[in-house]
Amino acid sequence: MKPALLEVMRMNRICRMVLATCLGSFILVIFYFQSMLHPVMRRNPFGVDICCRKGSRSPLQELYNPTQLELSNTAILHQMRRDQVTDTCRANSAVSRKRRVLTPNDLKHLVVDEDHELIYCYVPKVACTNWKRLMMVLTGRGKYSDPMEIPANEAHVSANLKTLNQYSIPEINHRLKSYMKFLFVREPFERLVSAYRNKFTQKYNTSFHKRYGTKIIKRQRKNATQEALRKGDDVKFEEFVAYLIDPHTQREEPFNEHWQTVYSLCHPCHIHYDLVGKYETLEEDSNYVLQLAGVGSYLKFPTYAKSTRTTDEMTTGFFQNISSEHQTQLYEVYKLDFLMFNYSVPSYLKLE
């Protein structure tokens, strides 16, 4: 049975299809809403008014009012995912929406594709390298054709993609209203272990060792050697967890994007995301986005078996040495991500 079908069965909710979904949110002081019935007219470089993309429907139109049966069935699943986010935001409004207003700096993770009317909020450790590669193909206007020919380091060069914070406030609100907004999420603790393995167990990540490793060891390790304090290249997972739940850490500065919560990176309680993709159904959800964008016939999400991928079994092993007290505190940090994206409490956790 497909993972997506299992998710539908597990959620066990009444599906409802609507043409528009609104969140009572303020984004940059201006109230915005999702409009499906009146696509915004925009002017092309040649001076001729066009609606959306010439000769085709916009991704938003295809998502909320699909013309193909197979897309209609998938749309039901994504409506349920949107409902889950909305319901969680409402139920936890005191926590999830402490701030009523976002600033342009809060939008630096939202990558904009003008040509296909897409906004993608990238979440590190959730296939964001490959999705940035795809966005470079989509926005490159012929410069790229095969996403896997783009080196990984080039995909992370900020100048190669335009983000929403680079626009004026009226332009930001226009795009939030008119473009299809999507993000990809992952089981929170699996993503956390993936970040730890990548940033603290790989010898080449010296910048993270210096920036965070030395600080973590200084605070969390008794009788640390001078070499460990200087290099910061042997942080234990237990020390990493202790650093994350330390109130001093959270008061000092925001988490690094690789272990920051999704709701803090992408602000789903302030920005209405039309589509929530999942790492567990990555290829299927990614190709659905590309279909909606009208490029699915010639552009596919890159598929390859990654032998070093962090698995659920691997995550279980990392948590074996974490005390139940620290497990409980860590779960509280990431609780909204678990609830918002319908991830159950891991069976290996010993919550107090």
From TrEMBL:
It is a single-pass type II membrane protein. It is an enzyme of class 2 (transferase). GO terms for molecular function: chondroitin 4-sulfotransferase activity; dermatan 4-sulfotransferase activity; N-acetylgalactosamine 4-sulfate 6-O-sulfotransferase activity. GO terms for cellular component: Golgi membrane. GO terms for biological process: apoptotic process; carbohydrate biosynthetic process; chondrocyte development; chondroitin sulfate proteoglycan biosynthetic process; developmental growth; embryonic digit morphogenesis; embryonic viscerocranium morphogenesis; in utero embryonic development. Signal peptide: none annotated. Its EC number is 2.8.2.-. Pfam families: Sulfotransfer_2. Keywords: Carbohydrate metabolism, Glycoprotein, Golgi apparatus, Membrane, Signal-anchor, Transferase, Transmembrane, Transmembrane helix. It is found in: Golgi apparatus membrane. Belongs to the sulfotransferase 2 family. This is Carbohydrate sulfotransferase. The gene is CHST11.
